[in-house]
Structure formats: C-alpha cells, structure tokens
Design brief:
- This protein has about 450 residues and is mainly β.
- Helix content is about 0%, strand content about 55%.
- The protein has 6 domains: about 5-75, Immunoglobulin-like (Sandwich); about 80-150; about 155-225; about 230-300; about 305-375; about 380-455.
Length: about 450
C-alpha cells in the first residue's frame, strides 16, 4: 500500500546558537498514521536555509515514502553596549570606555570604541561609540555613550628663599601651578608681613582659580627674613689729641645697616694720659639687625709746658743774688721750680747782666720747656766818712789830722791818703776842712764827705 510522508516547518526561526529543530514529520496511509523523525541537512544551527527530511522506510504492508522541507534560520539581533568608567583630565585623549556586544548563541564580544571630544574636561561632552556590523548569525547594532571628563586637580606650589632684611618689602618667592596635561604656570604671589625680620613670620600665597580642565588650588608658604648685618664704625682723629688731664672723648660712633643710621657715643679706655687710647662701641642689635662692634684708637699727645721766671731787681750785696721765682705750668700742671733755678753772673751789679734759667725736661704728659730771665742788680750805695779832731794846734805847716774810709756792701776802703784839705795851715775856727769823694765802682754808687776842724 502507498504512503505519504509529510514535513511541517515554520518559514523562519531565529538563531539561538543551538541546533534548530522546529519541524515535525508524519507518514500516513490506509490505516497508517505515524510520527517520523525529522533529519536536518546542512547546518541547522547557524543562520541560513536548512533542509529538513523525513523518510518512511516502508514494510511488508506499506511502501516507503519521504519528504523534504526548507526553512530559514534568521539572524538574531545583537546588542551593543558602551560602558565608561569615571575619568579625569590628563591632557591626553582619554579612553575609559569599552564596548560589549551580546547576542544569542553566547555572543559576547568586547571591542574598543571610537571617541569624540575625549581630551578636555566637561560634563557629558565626550562620547564613545561602537558600531557592530553583525556576523553570520547576528544583525549589527550600535551604541553611543556620553561620558564626563572630570577636571584634574591643580597643584599650587609657593617656593621661597631666605632673604635678608633690607627695610623694603621683600619678594623672594615664586609660584608654580602644575597639573595634568602639561599645566605649568609661573605666577606672582601676594605677600604679608614681608618687611621686617622674623622666623617664619612673613608669608606668600597664591590662589589659582582653575581653568577648563583643572580645579583651582591654593598655597601659602611662610618664610624667614634674616636679620641684616649692622656695621659699627668708630671714627677718631688721625692726629693726636692734646693731653688735658681730663678724660678725652674726641671720637664718634656710627651704626649703619639696612635702613639703619644711628649715631652713638663710644666707650673709652686709657683716654686720660699720653699714649694710645681706645674708643669702642658694641651695638646689641635689634629686631632687624645683628649686633656689631667697632673700635678705633687715637693718640693722646703731650701738652706743652710753660716755664715762667719772674725776677725782682735786687741790690748788690757782694753775694750771689737769687731774686727770681720759677713755675712750670701746663695742662693739669703747676710746679714751683724756684729752688732749681740756675743763675749766671748774679753777683755783680749790672743792667740785665744777671740771668736765671730753668729747663723743664718734660714728663709723660708734657713736653719740656725752658726759660731764661735776665735781671738787673742795682749798685749798692757807698758811704764816705771823713773823721777829724775838733781842734789841732797851729804849726805853721799844712795840717792833715783826718782819716777817711769808704764803706758799702762788701766794701771797706781806707782812703785817708787821698783826702783833700783846704785852709789847713792858718789858725781859724772850723775853717780847715778835709774831704773825699768816692767815684763809685761797678757795684757801688759814689759818695762824698767833708769835715771841718779848727786850728788853734
């Protein structure tokens, strides 16, 4: 008996990655109805045309029969997903995303997307996209995702040296602003307390406001302003200062430095007696300057001495005469040197022929001095004395009964032989006379005397 094999298949099925068996088959005949096993030819897994076949082998009763049927496995859809992780600006193109393609039949692919505007920071301004063209079993798909590039942090660094106080505002600092993408800016900081010396009391700061790709940042650095040096200069006369007996203070001191100009009074050592004196001053320093010291020497020279001799006018005595007084005066000096006077030709009378002199040899603080004074020794008076008897008898011859002497300072002369008589022969009452005149000498002034006597 004849049979009929029938296969029933859908026109299309969708790819699943598994072998597709959507068909059913049966054989029929007179008194026969049986389900048959469907066999598939070609690939019944991948998309494409598939042929299904069913065959009835037949038996003693029924003849064999077979049937063929085609159906199509259509491509499954694919799904492309682009996923991005958070990212921060670096200055270079950023690729923080990946594309994932999924689909039936264990389709699971990872691909690298293409990017747009993926350098600069921005909120959802960058995009990553991928287009999957499909494959044998899947249709293509596409996805685009926008993503945010966060601003990179910026770093503001203030670097300072240690300047020295000058009295003016100091600006020893520099600012650099750095960040991703080659950010490297040089800026000028603002300062506080940047004039006076102090340990970490001055500060420099800068605030960077940020830019399209960087957040702002700020930095403040304290720095030390070192004390400036001071210079103490003591100035003394180059020539010697004359001794006065009192402390001498001829020097000046000046302390100089940055914004510093102070006159000071120095301290002295050995500044009274002749020699080398020292003047010095030590500046203790202040909030902006270190201390300093300075010294200088000066010479104290001898003061002059003055020797003064004062003489009176003595009268000849026959002995050496010392009518002078001597004093030596000077700075803080008043000496009586009368006892040390040296006399010359001081015995005989004469006009300015005698002298008194003294030489002061000087001392530690005084130069020597000398003085000579001439003085006059007046002549002494002389006294002429003629002595006669009151009466003498007449003899007829000239009578010479008298004696005569001349006396004075260191003078005693018998000049009887030199008497001059008058009317000394005839009788008369006090009519005869004897006289003598002493003419004087170097040391005496002259004198005369006349004495009358009677001749009875």
């Amino acid at each position: 008996m004849s049979t009929t094999t029938t296969i029933v298949c859908p026109a299309t099925v969708t790819y699943t990655g598994l072998p597709q068996t959507p068909c059913t088959a049966s054989v029929t005949g007179t008194g026969l109805s049986q389900t048959l096993v469907v066999r598939y030819f070609r690939d019944n897994t991948d998309a494409g045309v598939v042929v299904a076949k069913a065959r009835f082998a037949g038996n003693q009763t029924y003849r064999p029969s077979q049937a063929f049927q085609r159906f199509v496995i259509t491509k499954a859809t694919s799904t492309t997903t682009v996923t991005c992780k958070p990212t921060t600006y670096t200055g270079s193109p950023l690729t923080p995303c990946w594309a994932k393609i999924t689909g039936a039949g264990w389709l699971r692919l990872f691909r690298t997307p293409t990017y747009k505007k993926n350098i600069n920071a921005g909120i959802l301004t960058a995009s990553a996209s991928y287009k999957y063209r499909g494959d044998r079993n899947h249709t293509g798909s596409m996805a685009t995702t926008k993503f945010t590039i966060a601003k990179a942090t910026s770093t503001t660094t203030v670097t300072c040296t240690k300047p020295t106080y000058t009295g003016s505002p100091l600006k020893p600092c520099s600012v650099t602003v750095t960040g991703a993408g080659g950010l490297n800016l040089t800026r000028t900081p603002t300062y506080k307390n940047n004039t006076h010396a102090g340990y970490l009391t001055a500060s420099a700061s800068y605030t960077y406001k940020g830019d399209r790709n960087h957040t702002g940042s700020t930095a403040t650095t304290r720095f030390t302003i070192l004390k400036a040096t001071s210079t103490t200069t003591v100035t003394c006369p180059l020539t010697s200062v004359m001794y006065t007996g009192l402390p001498l203070k001829p020097c000046t001191a000046m302390v100089t430095g940055a914004k510093l100009n102070l006159p000071k009074t120095p301290n002295y050592k050995n500044n009274i007696v002749v020699g080398t004196a020292t003047a010095s001053y030590t500046y203790p320093g202040d909030s902006n300057h270190w201390g300093s010291t300075g010294s200088a020497t000066f010479a104290i020279g001898q003061a002059p001495s003055v020797t003064t001799i004062i003489c009176t006018t003595p009268t000849y005595t026959g002995s050496p005469l010392t009518p002078c007084t001597a004093t030596v005066t000077g700075a803080h000096l008043n000496l009586n040197k009368t006892a040390s006077l040296v006399y010359a030709t001081n015995t005989n009378a004469g006009v300015m022929t005698a002298s008194a002199s003294y030489t002061y040899p000087g001392d530690l603080n005084h130069t020597g001095s000398t003085q000579t004074a001439m003085f006059t020794i007046n002549q002494a008076t002389s006294t002429t004395t003629v002595i006669c008897p009151a009466t003498i008898p007449h003899t007829g011859s000239p009578l010479t009964p008298c004696t005569a002497t001349v006396t004075g300072a260191n003078l005693n002369l018998n000049v009887t032989a030199s008497l001059i008589y008058a009317n000394n022969t005839n009788v008369g009452s006090n009519t005869a006379s004897a006289s003598y005149t002493y003419a004087g000498d170097l040391n005496h002034i002259g004198s005369t005397d006349t004495t009358f006597f009677s001749i009875t």
